[in-house]
Design brief:
Layout lengths: L1 E10 L8 E9 L3 E5 L6 H8 L7 E6 L2 E2 L5 H7 E4 L10 H6 L10 H9 L2 H4 L18 H13 L5 E5 L7 H14 L4 E5 L3 H4 L4 E6 L2 E6 L1 H7 L1
Parallel strand pairs: 3-8, 3-9, 6-7, 7-8
Antiparallel strand pairs: 1-2, 1-4, 4-5, 9-10
The structure holds adenosine-5'-diphosphate (2 copies).
Protein name: Metal ABC transporter permease
Subcellular location: Cell membrane
Length: about 230
């Protein structure tokens, strides 16, 4: 049974301009998928609908067979984690940043969260101490280090579905590959949806959805799509 289903989803921000045209997507539980397509295709709109920043005008979005409109915000937030492109960190320690998301809905025990996070290879590889304050008065993290903290912050809540919205697109390809290879070890049982544009980052996806002007124009494995070109 697929974890995430877009069932004939039609959506526009304004009534006179449709952005997604009867979109159908099926994302298998535990799979790793990528959503690609030119700028303006509607990729981020898919993410916003999944998080219910907006609801579709027609069609349904299902998580584990349930219409997300019938799911409480609390359980929706528990089911989904997101890593955006430009993560904003608190001027506080790395540990605090991981324990508390931007929404402040982190685990109550900062130390327990820090311990859990410290186990993660993502953080092991940060050259700086866990307790050091980040930001203006403390240490400056590079873009790649910031994203490692942001990813850890999302994963520490253990969401079964994680969405990366251009999470590594702003980084150089080497840093990106480095983070992605760490991620591979961490995301085993999780459903992972990556919105991306570099082909090198999506090559190992189980399935790639190619979106253009709010329509699914192709989907399949990486090699399958290359063969069709
Ligand atoms: P861009 O404008 O991002 O430099 P293109 O216009 O060539 O790249 O491609 C548009 C989108 O389609 C990109 O996100 C790219 O990753 C994706 N894409 C192009 N060719 C393929 C393919 N063979 N398989 C999967 N995705 C592809
Ligand atoms: P992508 O992520 O593929 O670049 P988006 O989902 O961000 O594309 O945008 C799809 C279309 O929706 C674009 O034409 C964009 O201009 C439009 N759009 C995005 N956000 C809004 C908004 N808040 N209000 C109106 N139109 C929007």
């Amino acid at each position: 049974q697929p974890t995430v289903v877009f069932d004939n989803v039609t959506f526009g921000y304004d009534p006179d301009r449709t952005i997604l045209h009867g979109l159908n997507l099926e994302i298998a539980a535990g799979s790793k998928v990528a959503i690609v397509g030119p700028s303006g295709a509607g990729k981020s709109t898919i993410a916003r609908l999944l998080f219910r920043f907006y609801d579709p005008q027609a069609g349904r979005i299902l998580i584990d067979g349930q219409d997300i409109r019938l799911v409480t915000q609390v359980s929706l937030r528990a089911a989904l984690g997101i890593v955006p492109q430009d993560s904003v960190l608190f001027n506080d320690t790395i540990g605090y940043n991981i324990a508390y998301g931007r929404d402040g809905a982190g685990p109550a025990d900062v130390e327990a969260a820090a311990r859990a996070a410290a186990l993660m290879p993502l953080i092991d590889r940060l050259p700086k101490r866990f307790e050091t304050e980040v930001g203006e008065r403390g240490l400056k993290l590079s873009g790649g280090e910031k994203q490692r903290v942001a990813i850890a912050r999302t994963l520490v809540k253990n969401p079964p579905i994680v969405l990366f919205d251009e999470a590594t697109s702003a980084l150089d390809t080497r840093t990106e590959q480095d983070i992605l290879s760490t991620m591979r070890g961490l995301a085993e049982q999780r459903t992972t949806i990556s919105i991306a544009h570099r082909l090198s980052t999506i090559a190992d996806s189980d399935r790639i959805f190619v979106l253009d002007q709010g329509r699914l124009v192709e989907s399949g494995g990486h090699l399958e799509l290359l063969r069709r070109d």
